[in-house]
Amino acid sequence: MKHKAIYHLLVATSALMALVETSVAQTIYIPEGSATSVAVVDFKSKAIVRRYSDLEAVHGLAIAEEKQLLIAGSLSEIETGDALKERKPAGMSEEDHAAHHAPSTTQTSSQGDGSKSLLSVVQIETGDILRRIEVPGGVHHVAVTPDERFAVVTHPSGGGISVVNLSSLQLEAFIPTGNNPNYLAFGSAADTVYVSNAGNGTISEVDLDRRIVRRNLLAGTSPEHMIADPSSGTLYAVDTGAGRIIELNLKTGEAYARSISAEKFMP
After folding, report:
1. pLDDT tens per residue across span 4-23
2. What residues contact 86, with CB distance under 8 A and at least 6 apart?
3. What's this model's pTM, rounded to 2 decimal places?
4. Is residue 162 a contact partner of residue 171, using CB atoms and an 8 Å limit?
5. I want to staple 75 with a disulfide (CB 3.0 to 4.6 A). Which of 59, 151, 172, 230 is the partner?
6. Helices and strands (H, E) in the chain, number of each type
7. What is the mean pLDDT of residues 119-130?
8. Are strands 255-259 and 244-249 parallel, antiparallel or unpaired?
9. CATH superfamily of this structure's domain 2-265
10. How far apart are CA 184 and CA 186, in angstroms?
11. Band (24; pLDDT cuts 50, 70, 90)
12. Burial of residue 91 (number of CB atoms within 10 Å: 0-12, 13-18, 19+)
């Protein structure tokens, strides 16, 4: 299991890290960045079967499979007010749109550096954008909790993560984690997410219900992409600054570093 987990992590650090796949539907979603769209690819035929459009600077993607939602994060920062108003989904009333973007009363802590970007919630079947949610800063990685309660996104320039409720489709919290938060991973608990802070060599263990960082774990020099093995309680992170894998015991917080050798882990 260890070698398999590390192999998959090495694959995840490639350009294919931009792909989001749902195993049941055999569908791959590819963010197309400046093309302001997401390509939907049929895995079997390798053909693009449709595109979701009007998704500015789309980068991070995640799927809520049971809810049949695609969560798309934008790297582009926007102005508030008129800039957001212009992005009102077609067919939505001004009143409903204003309610959708009303400030949440449950947000915690300060919100990044004051910059804003948009997190779009897309209905997979129709491609309709159900909601555009203003979040504090450009979005790099997007993940959905295993129970599909929340979407969580990293803000590298903002020093933290945003937590969005997938029932109300509202921003619930901004939680500071560390310098240059990069990637997200879940272990065995749906209420706990791990955030790699590439700027200070730590991985934050975040309690999503309490909206706090429980602990910061040392993880090399610049941890980025990660994968967790819940069965062994181990988190694997790529330390890009040193060209190695960090193997982190989530119970003890002890970290072990090994040099990357992809050939060793090939199946």
Report:
1. 554 455 444 443 344 444 44
2. none
3. 0.81
4. yes
5. 59
6. 3, 20
7. 97
8. antiparallel
9. YVTN repeat-like/Quinoprotein amine dehydrogenase (2.130.10.10)
10. 7
11. very low
12. exposed
